[in-house]
Design goal:
The chain is α/β, with parallel strands linked by helices. Helix 2 runs parallel beside helix 5, helix 7 runs antiparallel to helix 11 and helix 9 crosses helix 11. The chain is built from 11 helices and 8 strands. The longest helix is centred in the first third of the chain and has 19 residues. The protein is globular and about 55 Å long. The chain has one domain: Vaccinia Virus protein VP39 (Rossmann fold, 3-Layer(aba) Sandwich), CATH 3.40.50.150. Strands 1, 2, 3, 4, 5, 6, 7 and 8 form an 8-stranded mixed β-sheet that branches. The structure holds S-adenosylmethionine (SAM). The site of S-adenosylmethionine has 24 residues, from helix 1, helix 3, helix 4 and strand 2.
């Protein structure tokens, strides 16, 4: 029997990273909500529409989309992470928005029904596919003709100080991690605009636009921001890989984040693409 696609990512998001995202949901939502809102505005969801939220995680954007489509619409969040979906289910139940629901599904392989959705949306949930052309072909098949797509993804690491500052703090004490293929599944896999254009065009999308979006993100108090920096992203991995340097790395992390702390919490610049397209 052949291995199903995305087994590595399914394992990853059901292990410590998924549990971490679930437990830090409030802090992470606070950081990235404005970027999701920018993609949502670009999608321009309308009352009564049926919308898929790809890689919906803890459901923040599923709820936002559900409010936008109203009770006559439908929003289905799809994700592979059981701990994050559990948080999403609790939040949806508490919201009493009957038009919102989530399923455990690999968006690359799931049959969402042919030509039955008005739009696809994602906040940082489409950069993890083992086979992006196959995934977007599958997603395009679920869209009605003329259906819309909007997602937000990161531009290159070097343009994202919210990530490079904690990394630089850690690298004062430990050697850099082994370089990986920039196109490997991961947060920066869609940093190259030509690659994204090629994947979307190959899947049958037209009117493809990658609009650069620069916005400071943060808003968490220093101690909370430190927890996020320690547990999510490369600094956390370097601490895990070098437990003897933990105290030194944490001290430098605190110094780096303190330099960006103000009355409204810790803020760093971020750089993303707001990607929009239409099914031809
Ligand atoms: C960086 S998190 C973003 C989560 C959420 N969209 C948010 O903004 O809070 C990436 C999400 O993509 C999900 N994901 C990764 N590969 C996936 C796949 N093949 N199908 C569905 N979801 C996937 C992960 O489980 C995770 O929840």
């Amino acid at each position: 029997m052949s291995t199903p696609p995305n087994t590595a990512q399914i394992d990853y998001w059901n292990d410590t990273p998924g549990l971490t995202w679930a437990s830090l949901q409030t802090l992470l939502d606070r950081q990235i909500a404005p970027l999701g809102a920018a993609a949502l505005a670009a999608l321009d969801p309308r009352a009564g529409e049926r919308i898929l939220d790809i890689g919906c995680g803890c459901g923040d954007t599923t709820l936002a989309l559900a409010l936008a489509v109203g009770p006559e619409g439908q929003v289905l969040g799809a994700d592979i992470s059981r701990p994050m979906l559990e948080v999403a289910r609790q939040r949806i139940a508490a919201s009493e928005l009957a038009q919102a629901s989530v399923i455990e599904a690999d968006a690359q392989a799931e049959d969402f029904g042919a030509a039955s959705w008005d739009a696809l949306y994602s906040r940082f949930g489409v950069m993890f596919f083992a086979d992006p052309p196959a995934a977007f072909a599958n997603l395009a098949a679920a869209l009605k003709p003329g259906g819309r797509l909007a997602f937000v993804c990161w531009r290159p690491l070097k343009e994202n100080p919210w990530m490079t500052a904690p990394l630089a703090a850690a690298l004062k004490h430990v050697p850099p991690p082994q370089p990986t293929d920039p196109n490997d599944p991961g947060p920066f896999a869609f940093a190259d605009p030509e690659r994204v254009r090629g994947i979307l065009a190959g899947a049958g999308f037209g009117d493809i636009v990658l609009a650069p979006h620069d916005e400071a993100i943060g808003g968490n108090a220093l101690e909370d921001a430190l927890v996020v920096a320690r547990k999510v992203g490369p600094a956390g991995r370097l601490i895990a890989d070098h437990p003897d340097q933990r105290a030194d790395i944490l001290a430098s992390l605190r110094e780096a984040l303190s330099a960006h702390d103000g009355p409204d919490g810790v803020w760093f610049d971020s750089a993303t693409w707001i990607v929009t397209a239409t099914k031809a």
